[in-house]
Each structure stands twice: as C-alpha cells, then as structure tokens.
Amino acid sequence: MQRVFNFSAGPSMLPLPALEKARDELVNYKNTGTSVMEMSHRSKAYLEIITDAESLLRELMAIPENYKVLFLQGGASMQFSMVPQNLMVNKKADYVNTGQFAKKASSEAKKFGEVNIVASSEDKTFSYIPELNPAKFTKDADYFHITMNNTIFGTRFTEIPDTGSVPLVTDMSSSILSEVYDVSKFGLIYAGAQKNIGPAGVTVVIIREDLLGRAPSNLATMLDYKIHADNDSMYNTPPTYSIYIAKLVFEWLKDLGGISAIQKINEEKAAYLYDYLDNSSLFKAPVVKKDRSLMNATFITGSDELDSKFVKEAEKAGFVNLKGHRSVGGMRASIYNAMPYEGIKALVEFMKKFETENK
C-alpha cells in the first residue's frame, strides 16, 4: 500500500528513513539476536541506545552541561502535575493561557499552590498570543509557565518572555526540534514525543540542575525529577522502544543538517501553505499572522458542511487526519518535521481543485 500524507496532530508521521531503519533492525538488532523490544534495559546494547539518544539530543539542541535530560513516561499531561509538585516552594506560579493544554496545565497547578494567569487569549478563541505585561508577573513566583506551540489552535510564541530570575518553564511538545531555541533561557522544558521526537510513550524533560531537589520529602518517588536524574532515567524500566525510535529520529535530523536546517524547511512549508490560505477565496486561516504556528496550520471555509466535505474528499485523495480538533472544528494540517515539502505542495494543489469545484 502506498503511504498517505498524514497530517495528524499526534501521534504523527515519522521520518521514513527512521522507520525503514527500525524495520531492518526489528527482529535482530545489531546481531544481538533480539529485538530492541525484547532486550533488557540494563543490557550493554540498550545502554548504548539510551546514551546515544541523550548525546544526540544534547548536540541537536545545544543543551548546556548544567541541564539534565530525562526520558520519562506519562506524556505532557503528567508534567502538568509534576512541574508544580517539584518546583512550587513558595506555592506561587505564573501561567499564560493560550489554549486547551495551557489551561489544563494551570488547572493542575492550582491543586498545589496559587496560580496567577498573567495573560489569556481565550477572549478570541485562542487565535493569538497575548501581550505580556511584566507588571503583572509575580516577583516571588517559583516559575513562569508557557505553552510554546498551541497544537489545537495553531499559535506559537515567536518571542521568549523575559522572566528575570524566575525560571521559565515550557510545554514544547509540538514544537521541540522544529526551530532553534536557546535552552539556557528556560529552567525546564518538557515535551511529549508523539509529534517531532518519536512514537507515543516517552516524554523528554530538560531541566536545569539547580531546580532539582526542591520536591517535598513526601512526594511519590516516581514523580521526583531528582530521582530520575540521579538514576539516568533508569530508576524503573523506561519506554525502551520509544527511546530507540527517538534516537533514529535524532540521527535523521543530524544527517539533515540539524535544527537550523529543519527550521528553514519548516518555514518554507508553512509559508507555502499560509500564502495560499491568505489568497484563497474559500479557505481562511483564523490565527493572527504574527502568531501563526509552523507546526499546526488551522483553516476553515466558514461552512461546517463544506468543511466536512473537504475532509472526506481529502482523505479519499490520500490526505488524512485533516479534521480540526473536536473543540474548534474546521481543519488543521499538522506539518511536523517529518512532513515533506512535497506533501504541502500536493495538499495545496488539492485545495485549489476543491476550491474551484465548490465556488
């Protein structure tokens, strides 16, 4: 069967070279006689995999030495509660509400301390990134939280907030590895894997070392960042195969030229699609131009019936998972790193044809 163009928001498409290498190594990994799925996480072969995965990620993102890289489980949703439980010393935190996941993160944090919503774009259905007024920041906050890219609504922070001495924490699930970020500007970065890193099952946490060890003594062991850092992400059995696939994706990115190279490709892909949307008489992009995501492009026709027709016809033509999130409707093209430029060009050609036939 021919592979389709998969625009799923997550789990999303993976780079074909990584999938092909995983296929070739599936049954017998490097003459060990076993699959990675079968081998002990304490074996020499697997320790090389997880060590190489961390080394590659550090190289790709230029992660400073005073940061720990953790491979955890539970998705970004687990991080919504792990972050406040580990970092809330003064029981205060600032949050910016830019979408459903940002809202979930702040709701979890409210269970453990006082949450100050510094700014929100909910008034206009999260179609923009709100301006931040430093006068509204909590000076003695334990951390300041943003959702870097909003998967559902298709917005992204294009400027990193200056939070002074307050550690900046970000959910980078749908934008990690898509563009160059200065890791040193953040106290903690977390990201579910199922968009740009690999298959669902592993969550990457990048945490500055001085933020470790702040958790209360009665915190459950598995929720303590320091426990995982002290055990090199091996306190318990890690999601071994997901980490292995992540390593293959990191290798693919490195071979491509690194993050700066993929950022250029991503900018070209997004520009091609948004340029068409801005000039279309049928499709519209509802997000404010300056805040548009490179990873998740949302668009509508203005008619629920026509939106539904487009999604159905697109699927028949080999463009799958274009239906928008159930909470907002419309359409969404998630164009993560693995989506080739050819996929965007083919989608736009299909959209032009649909537009002509549905005037």
Within the CATH hierarchy, at the fold level, what is the topology of the largest domain?
Answer: Aspartate Aminotransferase, domain 2
Strand composition percent:
15-25%
Helical proportion, percent range: 25-40%
Query: How many independent structural domains?
Result: 2
Q: Give start-end ranges of low-pLDDT stretches.
A: none
User: What's the number of extended β-strand segments?
Assistant: 13
Structural class: alpha/beta
What is the CATH homology-level superfamily of the largest domain? Answer: Type I PLP-dependent aspartate aminotransferase-like (Major domain)
In CATH, the architecture of the largest domain is 3-Layer(aba) Sandwich
Overall average residue pLDDT: 97
Sum up the overall morphology in one term: globular
CATH class of the largest domain: Alpha Beta
Radius of gyration: 21 Å
The span between the termini is 33 Å
Helix count equals 9
The biggest beta sheet reads: 7 strands, mixed
